[in-house]
Design goal:
Blueprint (H helix, E strand, L loop, with lengths): L4 E2 L2 E2 L2 H9 L11 E9 L2 E9 L8 E4 L13 H6 L7 H19 L7 H12 L12 H16 L3 E2 L1 H20 L10 H25 L8 E2 L12 E7 L5 E7 L5 H10 L1
Parallel strand pairs: 6-7
Antiparallel strand pairs: 1-2, 3-4, 4-5, 8-9
Helix pairs in contact: 5-6, 5-7, 6-7
Amino acid sequence: MCRTIKNGRRQSAAVAFLKPARGRPNLRVLTDSIVHRVIFDNKRAVGVECSPSATPRAVPKTYRAAREVFASSASARSATGARALGLHLEGPFISLQRAGAHAARFVKDHRAGKIDQGEVDAAARAALAPFEGEGSEGSAGPYRVQHDLQEMMQDMVGIVRRESEMALALEHLAKLRARAARVRVDGNRAYNPGWHTAIDLRNLITVSEAVARSALERKESRGAHFRDDLPAPDPAFARVNVVAKKGPDGEMRVERRPIPEIPAELKQIIEEMK
């Protein structure tokens, strides 16, 4: 059962879980706050340091938990949350420093690659193609295709999935891809969201196809992937990843790849955390 569905509509985690608990005396909600770090006592998280998001350079306040600390992945300010891997920590800056050091080392150890001007010209032509599109759906064409894609994926490859609906979704995606190739945009290249949407459609449809094909291949229910026609988990799928890739004919293909064994050092950490 998906507990974020009520009256046939998906609810946010805040509405589904937080709102019913707001009246509890042991709950205090801090909004518009940035978490700087999690406070540990040995290996146990015991609190957080945070400051108001409006004044992020203010002296952080410490909040200690009576029992547990829960880390929420990008529950707000999703772009920042995603960049910070779920928490507004200094960690991402350390990661960027390491990435920069490796990039500098790579540049020293390797010569500059050759730029294929033919590929550059082909990419430019593809990017500018919407200005010369057929335009049978009018200037709102990119937005119409995007809207229809969102509606179709929500209906046929949504939270509750069935093989028959996902197979039909692949047929709809082929039609949407053809529509996306014909859209036309007006105006110029500066501040043109219609043009940006037309370019985005190619990636949106590709990702949607990968989701649908992978969900069809995973013949079980596991985590956020729920198959109404296959509600039980299959132990065999716990040992593989479903990988989408371009086939020899240019069409998308999916395959199962074994998951590598967990490194010994990670197994040790898992055992210690039990």
